[in-house]
Amino acid sequence: MRQLILLAFLLFQSSIYSQETFFKVLDFEDFKNARQIVLYEDRIFILVTGVCDQLYECSLYMEIDDQGEILWQKRLPWLDVASNSMIIENDTIFISGNHPSQEKWLWHQMSVDGGDSLATYEVFEEGNIFNRMFNLGQAKYGDQFCIYGPGNRDDRETSLLYFVDQNGQVDTLVELFNTDIDCDPFEVIPDNEGNLVAFIRYREEGKNRQRVVSKINSDKELFWTYFSEENAQQDAIPNGAILEDGTIVYNSREQFNKAEKLRGIGPDSTIGWWYDPTNVTGQTREFNKIHTIQDGSIIGLGMFGNRNVDPAIWEVPWITKIADDESKIWERAYYSFKDDGEDTHFGWFNDAVELNDGSFIVIGRIILNANNSKTTVIARLDSDGCLEPDCGVFNDVTELLTSTQTIEKIEFEIYPNPVEDNFTIKMEGTPEKVEIFNLSGQLIKEAEYTKSIGLDDMPKGIYLVKIFMDGKIEIKEVVKS
Fold first, then answer.
1. Which of 95, 227, 357, 472 is deepest in the core (most CB within 10 A)?
2. Which residue, of 371, 401, 431, is where some domain finishes?
3. Considering the entire predicted model, what is its pTM?
4. Three-class HEC string of the chain
């Protein structure tokens, strides 16, 4: 029996529940995956990636306001970028990406006001050429930029950290952990003591996967390294955050368990912090990004799944807030059922920023239908991760979907359906409220429960009837003929 969950959003063209929160599905043609969001002087900038001309990866940049309206956008069809490719400073957007030759990287600069291109540089070191370089992002470090990714040469791979000035001149190249399989620095961030911390996917021939966390000091020297235990199933993309006390938190996956966890390690390489979201078989969580926020806690976001419900929830957008004492504050998953009622929409969140009022702008990707029509998602959630005020446990994953309590649906019927003028709701009991939405997610009518509700002043089309009763919500379609 399907468990009831609050439909925290309606996956249509645009779903807006108030002036402050929204969930927008935007189609940018070739660009389908919102990867990175940056807050700069109270302005919001977004990086979206895609495939141009069905041949190669490319990128789109835009500025939006706090209601998700696009102020300007700029395509860079020649620049292939990663999730951590954009830094904004001194009214300039700095973007790292791949060079078509794959033997160097590109570093592009453009204006924050309309995206006018300012300069493009090639990042490599003369006399030290790699057969293949793959850029994974950049980090600001003092007055320099650290542009990073793996490099291959002579069947060996190493983590490359190029330190460049604002004019694209290479000051230092740091090479870390030469290996014969994987040595991928997926994220590099500064810590609270003036060092850079690198989160690396690492594997040697004949061994299982590991996670490496390394610190590089201001002299560009490696001085501290943590190696996780080997794990054949450790295919989580490494990313992390640093707490105020210096604890380094990164995502980990235990063997034969697809639910990722967060691990906190101290300077003595001991594990002092361990967050396990769930031990329920069939539930999965994957962290695409981890951030520390204003109150010192952590925001993690990515994908949630639950195979224990019918229909199964596979990969849907998910966000959680975790205190610095490793306890969960809240956890939300956002999804609705496809038109056939037998499956859920697919999707995930990739990144988020916290606004001054404590709300969040989150970005990601949604797959809307059986044809795998992928498109970009931009949403604003309140400080509790909700789209609707006081969303409570109804879209709190742990409290609802792992509960032993059976949550019953609201049973009601709509007739006639299709309807010409008025329709009747047949059900047991009396709901607190009835709302009617159009397919754009706009609330067009709100009424107390009556036996007859009129659509005579509405154009022909499909509408959604939303019933509130005893702390539960149910939605059904009605067709105006």
1. 95
2. 401
3. 0.77
4. CCCCCCCCCCCCCEEECCCCCEEEEECECCEEEEEEEEEECCEEEEEEEEEECCCEEEEEEEEECCCCCEEEEEEECCCECCCECEEEECCEEEEEEECCCCCCEEEEEEECCCCCEEEEEEECECCECCCEECCCEEEEECCEEEEEEEEEECCEEEEEEEEECCCCCEEEEEEEEEECCEEEEEEEEECCCCCEEEEEEEECCCCCEEEEEEEECCCCCEEEEEECCCECCCCCCCCEEECCCCCEEEEEECCCCCEEEEEEECCCCCEEEEECCCCCCCEEEEEEEEEECCCCCEEEEEEEEECCCCCCEEEEEEEEEECCCCCEEEEEECCCECCCCCCECEEEEEEEEECCCCCEEEEEEEECCCCCCEEEEEEEECCCCCCCCCCCCCCEHHHHHCCCCCCCCCCEEEECCCECCEEEEEECCCCCEEEEECCCCCEEEEECCCCEEECCCCCCEEEEEEEEECCEEEEEEEEEC
